[in-house]
Each structure stands twice: as structure tokens, then as C-alpha cells.
Amino acid sequence: MKKIAVFADVQNVYYTTRQAYGRQFNYRGLWKKLEGMGEIVSATAYAIRRDDDQQIKFQDALRHIGFDVKLKPYIQRSDGSTKGDWDVGIAIDVLDAAPYVDMVVLLSGDGDFDLLMEKVKTGYGKESVVFGVPMLTANSLVNSVDRFIPIEEDMLL
Questions:
Q1: Which of 23, 116, 142, 157 has the most CB atoms less than 10 A away?
Q2: Judging by beta carbons within 10 Å of its beta carbon (0-12, 13-18, 19+), is residue 122 exposed, middle or buried?
Q3: What are the distances in angstroms from CA 23 to CA 20, 81, 116?
């Protein structure tokens, strides 16, 4: 049975599914789909700490499903812009996990991860899989992996 490590870019999945479908992603459905592909040995969801009740309930639900939830503080700058980016953290965790699993699964459409997923595939010789919203996932990311699985209606709440 394949050992699977899962990395969920929560902000990216939230905004792309909302933009494309006006709905939320079904993490429990994802978990069931992944269990059919192998043994999930690690699963991490990367989110922003906003400390509102809805976010806390969502993060607790992710933990209940089986995700380790990593949080970064939500930062609002004086010019009104915001910061809450997990790209480097995700990249470090993926590279740390890749030697010990058979498959790395990334939930994100962010093209910044194309080199990372290419490294998983060619540098580590591991199966690289991305789940993303088709029209909002960077082509470079789709082309960097062994398998792109589109997030469509059947993966939404």
C-alpha cells in the first residue's frame, strides 16, 4: 500500500473553490478519496489564524478528519494589505516528508509550487499529485506533476 503525505494550502483552496463554484471544498470527501489511493501517513493543513469562531470550528473539523493544522498569524499592514503566506513552510515540509513516502499530494493551484512538485517527482522519484480547481490552477503546476486531479462539483460541500 502506498504511503501518502498530504499538504493542503487552505487559503488557496478556499478562494479558488469559492471563485469558481461559490462553494466550499469537502475535506472529508478528499480524505476518503485519498484512503482509496493508499495509507495517509501524514496530512497537514496550512491556514491563517484569525481567531473567529467560524475559523476555529473549521480548524477543529480539519483536526477531527486527521489533519495536523499549522497556523500563521493574520497580519494586516498599515496600508491595508494583508499577509499570511505559507509557501515556504509548505515547501520545507514537503521536502522533509518526500524521502519517507511514496506519494506527495498537494492541494493548491499556486504556480509557485511547480518547482517543488517537479523536485518531488524527478529529484526524489516519488509520485506527485495536485488537486486544484482546473480554471484557477497554474499550467506550470499541472505540468510539473505526475497526476492533476481537478476539484470539481463532486468534491464540494
A1: 116
A2: exposed
A3: 8, 25, 28
Convert 33-61 to b/e letters by CB count within 10 Å (16 or more is b): ebeebbebebbbbbbbeeeeeebeebbee
CA dihedral 3, 95, 125, 139 (to 10 degrees): 100
Nearest to 94 by CA among 61, 62, 129, 65: 129
- Alpha carbon distances (Å) from 62 to 18, 39, 107, 128: 18, 18, 14, 22
Pairing verdict, β 75-76 and 82-83: antiparallel
pLDDT, tens digit, for every residue of 1-21?
Answer: 999 999 999 999 999 999 999
Residue of 137, 86, 146 whose CA lies nearest to 118: 146
127-132 and 103-107 strand pairing: parallel
**First vs last C-alpha separation in the chain:** 29
pLDDT higher than 70, residue 155: yes
Note the residue count of the chain.
Answer: 157
